[in-house]
Amino acid sequence: MVNVKGGTRPPWVGLGAAVWLQIASGNAYNFPLYSHSLKSILGFNQQQLTMLGVANDIGENVGLIPGLVCNKFPPWVVLLIGSFSCFFGYGVLWLSLSQTVQNLPYWMLWIALCVATNSSAWFSTTVLVTNMRNFPLSRGTVAGILKGYGGLSAAVYTEVYSALLRNSSSKLLLFLALGVPALSLLMMYFIRPCTPSLGEDSSESYHFLFVQVASIVLGVYVLTTTILEDVFSLNVLVSYTLLIIMVVLLMAPLAIPVKMTFYPSNRGKLGVSNVSVQDDSRAENSEPLLTPLSSSANLGSFQEGDEISEVDMLLAEGEGAVKKKRRPRRGEDFKFTEAMVKADFWLLFLVYFFGVGSGVTVLNNLAQIGIAQGIHDTKILLSLFSFCNFVGRLGGGVISEYFVRLKAVPRTVWMTCTQVVMIITYLLFASALNGTLYAATALLGVCYGVQFTTMVPTASELFGLKHFGIIFNFMSLGNPLGAYLFSGLLAGYLYDNEAAKQHSATCLGPDCFRVTFLILAGVCGLGTVLSIVLTMRIRPVYQMLYAGGSFRLPQSSSH
User: Fold this and answer.
1) How far apart are CA 464 and CA 541, in angstroms?
2) DSSP letter (8 states) at residue 330
3) Cross-strand bridge partners of residue 505
């Protein structure tokens, strides 16, 4: 049984700590920063490098085990496992790249990269599930903030890579192997389940607004400093000063619990006491009318868990101890197996797969795409994609939350709109017109970010929060699956073929990725059609959940 922390301040402390862990969970976005060193020092070809990119995405997104573990154990256990994963995985990569240990086989490095980036799944699952349960009435906003910071992590790491590590790939891997686990160990105490706020509180919206503004300021800051460091040669003192300012901006969300400490809100205390009273009265009303019989005694805490045998359940139903449980309706809490037989589950998975699977193909090959079009320093491209990814994640959460409360508009509408834009973006990439690379990268970053922020609250609203960890992580498999099909098998193969025609290991010119972009445009066209179908199907669910302009927890939902 996980202890629940009471009070109005702990959820905000947890959210502030979660911001740091979301930045840490973006360690997989660093692959473009050290992939060129893997290719040059270890002698890999493009297809081998692309398959390492697939390992990077598989590790980052295969979170079924973290999803199961987070329902059985407290958050600190999940974070501890992620810390060990990060340490051992990146440690092996550092040993190989630094030539401390030579001639490690390719398969070992592939597995090490999977293990290393799988720490992202452990970190992000913990903070996302815990904070969405702590703020169940603001799911879109919380998902947007946390996923936004996760998207911004690439730019933060790029700043660290440039200012602190002086563009050294081996130092970056050592930093990931030691620094990220240390950060997780420092923050794990603050990530804990708290008493959720189930009443309307005007101060809560202002607090969320403050965090959103702070994240925007951070995003603009890291993008600006990255460009400055690329254009100008800054000395060490200036670089360190810029880095310290970035760290201060990352601490901004913690200003909310500090403010609540010095200026406590009486309304917040009243809200907590009201929730407690409601919970007590609810518990009293749920007392069984019949005296438990022998078989019903075996049920234990039926309302709190699923650890019950089918035989005991059938006996209890026959004796009248419990009513026969009906299947959940959309909007209520589903078990994973119950969700998997729903058409909406697979439609959401496919729409997400087409959107992020195509987007991650560009992200994994962003350095090679830039070089093919004559841009050899791809740090600005990566930072631009990261910042726009952050804008898409944060903006997607804010906009979808606004319209879902205003008109009960299903969040998947925004997946539809952004996939239409992605079609245009891929055609723009394929054209390779002068000056369009940066614009196309920015557009793709925004659309890619919206896919993440939209899928997360949609999954929780359709299938509930009780088993949200495993359902969300299954949806996330769309990312590595897309990376394997579109990046590993498609983009890498076509790139190497074109490079062979040029009798070079490095492909130059628009033909290196043109066919890949045209295929990705077709993929997003199919995703758009499926997204429209899904939106039409789930519209009645949103009209039920958001009737009256605010989220209503279904009667059978228990978190």
Assistant:
1) 12
2) B
3) none
Task: Name the E strands within 275-362.
Answer: none
CA angle 257, 247, 193 (to 5 degrees): 35
332 SS3 class = strand
Q: Cα separation of 524 and 486, whole Å?
A: 12
Residues 6+ apart with CB under 8 A from 364: 31, 32, 50, 53, 54, 56, 57, 483, 487, 491
Closest to 49 in 3D by CA, of 381, 495, 500: 495
Among 483, 449, 263, which Cα is nearest to 361's?
Answer: 483
CB 451 within 8 A of CB 389: no
Integer Cα distance of 5 and 12 in angstroms: 12
Q: Please compute, for residue 461, the number of CA atoms within 13 A of its CA located in the half-sphere on the CB side.
A: 31
What is the arithmetic mean of pLDDT over 2-24? 80
Contact status, residue 150 vs residue 393, Cβ threshold 8 Å: yes
DSSP string for 73-87: S-HHHHHHHHHHHHH
Evaluated on CA atoms 164, 166, 168, 170, the torsion sign reads: negative
CA-wise closest residue to 5 among 71, 74, 105:
74
Q: What one-character DSSP code corresponds to residue 197?
A: -
CA contacts within 13 A on the Cβ side of 340:
8
The first and second tokens of residue 62, run together, are: 């295969």
For residue 458 the two structure tokens come to 């949609």
What is the residue type of 68?
A: L
Neighbours of 420 (CB within 10 A): 16
Alpha helices, DSSP H, located in 432-513: 437-463, 468-475, 478-482, 492-501
How far, rounded to the nearest angstrom, does the alpha carbon of residue 179 sit from its chain's CA centroid? 20
- Please state which of the ranges 12-26, 464-478, 509-523, 540-554 shows the lowest mean pLDDT: 540-554
The Cα 198–Cα 216 span in angstroms is: 28
Retrieve residue 496's tokens. Answer: 């190497």
- Measured distance CA(138)–CA(132) in Å, rounded: 8
Q: How far apart are CA 552 and CA 548, in angstroms?
A: 9
Rounded CA-CA distance 357/520 in Å is 9
Of 477, 511, 478, 475, the residue nearest 495 (C-alpha): 511
Task: Please report, for residues 157, 250, 449, 486, the alpha-carbon distance to residue 388 in angstroms, rounded to integers and kept in the order given.
Answer: 15, 18, 8, 22
Residue 252 carries which side chain, given as an amino acid letter? A
Q: Round to whole Å and give the CA distance between 296 and 317.
A: 9
Contact, 105 vs 117, CB < 8 A? no
DSSP string, 352-410: HHHHHHHHHHHHHTHHHHHHHTT----HHHHHHHHHHHHHHHHHHHHHHHHHHHHH---
Six-digit token pair at 324? 């026969």
Contact indicator for 120, 22 with CB cutoff of 8 Å: no
Whether the model pTM is above 0.90: no
What tens digit of pLDDT does each residue of 472-521 get?
889 988 888 888 889 878 988 898 899 889 888 788 888 999 999 999 99
Q: Which of 480, 359, 354, 496 is nearest to 429 (CA)?
A: 359
